[in-house]
Amino acid sequence: MKVTLKDVADAANLSVASVSRILTNRGRYSEVTAKRVRELAQKMGYYKNQNAADLSSKKSRAVGVVVPLIHTNFADEVIKGLYEATISSGYELLITYLDENEDHQYQVFQTLLSRQVGAVFMLSLDIPSWMVNTLLEEKISVISLTALLNDQVSAVTSDESEMMNTIIDYLVTMGHKNIALIGDTKLTTIISNTRRTNFIKLMHAHGLTDDNMFLYGTDHTYETGYNSVTTDYDINHLPFTAAVATADLVGQGLANAMLDHGKKVPDDLSIVTIDGLQQTEIARPKLTTIQQNFPEIGRVAMQLFLNSDSSNKDPQVIYIPTELIQRDSVLNLNAKI
């Protein structure tokens, strides 16, 4: 039997109007009461349906994408591709943003279910396991974008191992042995953990040791790139000849720091970025990059949902090809010998 708003109100010993205001974030109520009602609603399986047409047709024409509140500009490119595919398929795209606040996470979750979305696309997120599990229990397709979330969820992404292998192989071929990974190198997120692990593994695979590797930073920001060679390392005596930037912004920060301190890229430091957005082409010098096809990730993800067979629930992983774009930011050390 379907749980009604009245059922939740009776269980909470409140009026239907009060419970409705709490679940739709209207009016004034104490946080203690709000939390109790939301937990009851979640436990009982009640979600307010804000789309009567979807309910009557038993089929949703909306999909949702969940984006980290703090994100790099590649997210916009993924959303563009996803939006194009969504609109052309006759669906509506609901964009929501997620941070680490538990109450906010619940609100996002409530919004997605209240709209009866047919699919939820997770953009490079480490999200609470309860959210993923409940979405799957509700028979909602969950597809991760630009990252492998877990073995229960389909993903459309670039091959992180292949990207890092391409970069390290290229730098080593160009004569570089002491290489830094700069940007988000912490072990607490999916992307950062994967890139750091692959960086170390592939450096070892090229016969290089831990003494040849340098790790710096906890985020994908311009400031991290800039500060890496001006604060943590002595810009006049860098222990590495090349740096792999975990995002284009990080690479731009590196390049500008070198320029501001009278150094040259690539003569004093070679730089390769990951992502390959337009800023790498308009930077001075133009930055060598491993370019991901973000719009295609969005388009393919929507197509994966549209083509999904309800009888086949096995998660799929689709890798979108990437390309090394060689520009002006890497010095060939072999040519100097």
TrEMBL record:
Q: Which UniProt keywords apply?
A: DNA-binding, Transcription, Transcription regulation
Q: Does the keyword Transcription apply?
A: yes
Concerning InterPro entries, the annotation shows: HTH_LacI, LacI/GalR-like_sensor, Lambda_DNA-bd_dom_sf, Peripla_BP_I
Domain annotation HTH lacI-type: ranges: 3-57
Record flagged with keyword Transcription regulation = yes
Annotated GO molecular function terms are: DNA-binding transcription factor activity; transcription cis-regulatory region binding
Q: Name one Pfam family in it.
A: LacI
Instruction: Name the chain's protein.
Output: Catabolite control protein A
